[in-house]
Amino acid sequence: MYKSHSVGVIIPAYNEAEFVGDVIRDIPEYVDRVYVVEDCSDDETPEAIRTAAEAEAADARPPAERRDNDLSSINELYFESEELAERVDEFYAIGRTVMIHHKQNLGAGGAIKTGYQFALEDDTAIVATIDGDGQMDPTRLSRFLDPIVAGEADYTKGDRLSNDEHSGDMPQFRLFGNHILTLLTRVASGYWEVTDPQNGYTAVRADVLEHVSIERMYEYYGYLNDLLVRLNIAGADIADVPLPAVYDEEDSHIQYEEYIINVSQMLLRNFLWRLRVKYPPTKGHPIGLLAAFAGATATAGTVQLLHRFSAHQPDADEVTGTVGAVAMYLVAIASALLVLAFDRAIHTDKTNSTDHLAENVVLP
Predict the structure, then answer these.
(1) Domain range for residue 208?
(2) 161-179 pLDDT, tens per residue?
(3) Which tens digits make up the pLDDT trace of 334-356?
(4) Which of 53, 71, 173, 52 is nearest to 122 (CA)?
(5) Which of 35, 66, 139, 276 is the most buried (most CB within 10 A)?
(6) What is the number of structural domains in the chain?
């Protein structure tokens, strides 16, 4: 328990045999559950998890003395989700550590999704995520929990970019990429002050997760960006937690070319979806109507250009058609910029209770 709140930590683990054991052993004692999702690793990760869990359980005080969290025995869990049953090969507890084995590799987002679903079934009050590669210091977890416990935020996440000293050890190509993704995610999510959206050190209230359709969460590496969009639509308040970047001997599993293409496409889809849900043009919302006008004008400009190149026209008509298409594009761009400006202007901090969370939003 942490200040009367039960806490669970999710650790996704894929080919992290060298690091995951230390991460498990360093999880603070006040954490009630440690959900380690083993994602069909090719190395000795399962053995490393079991060894660390057994050592941690042997050193821990009896559960009755260590915490009074009202959580049921993990062996008593009954999973109503058919999807979860299809994803998980087996799970079992060693002390407070719950080892969860996927039937097939589902990626980082898939592992986090499984962990979230376990935590919700387990009635854990606050759920944190810490990567299994040793880049995140588990002893800093309280910094993520305090704003949630105090009612100042629904979701907290790490931020390595706001402080130059913290980002100093980050490779330059990653630093540049993270700054670009910060900008794109601000636009897509509506959280205009968020920084370092790729940071996987997070904590969230479990009752907030129930509002964001976790079962439909993106499973590729852009799951963090996708979750931010969902949190914004649900009306959740978020906070950045500064922490230093740590890079050692671990290898990244990200294929960057594929990553950039997939995440960019996802952010565009989510941005359009967020505008449609938060500012529905069908209900006459001014921002939604302006966004629809921008889209329609850009489409008309494209049609004008295609007609200009596909049809034989006199020179004067060609010039007129090109000028008309360019004018339409300029109007569309100006309208889109106004949409972004209005979206940012009306974004305000949410109140600090579940009453501000959207109840009936249909999430894809």
Answers:
(1) 7-275
(2) 877 776 666 777 777 877 8
(3) 999 999 999 988 875 443 334 45
(4) 71
(5) 35
(6) 2
Q: Is residue 1 part of a domain?
A: no
| Residue 167, both tokens | 């980002």
| Residue at which a domain ends, from 232, 251, 275 | 275
| Residue labelled with tokens 């210091």 | 137
Residues 178 and 295 in one domain: no
Eight-class DSSP state of 216: G
Residue 223 shares a structural domain with residue 162 = yes
- 149 versus 254: which is more confidently predicted? 149
Same domain, 266 and 294: no
Q: How many CB atoms lie within 10 A of CB 127?
A: 26
Block residue for tokens 């629809």: 292
Sign of CA dihedral 144, 145, 150, 153: positive
Pick from 35-49, 69-83, 203-217, 239-253: least confident: 69-83
Cα distance between residue 305 and residue 216, in whole Å: 38
Listed residues 254, 275, 296: the one ending a domain:
275
Cα 42 from Cα 35, distance rounded (Å):
20
Task: Print burial letters for 241-251: b (CB count within 10 Å at least 16), e (below 16).
Answer: bebbbeeeebe
What's phi and psi for 201, nearest 5 deg? Answer: -85, 105
In a domain, 363, yes or no: no
**91, 98 Cβ separation under 8 angstroms:** yes
Q: What is the pLDDT of residue 72?
A: 55
User: Rounded to an integer, what distance in angstroms lies between the CA atom of residue 272 and that of residue 291?
Assistant: 9
DSSP string for residues in 235-250? T--EEEEE-----SSP
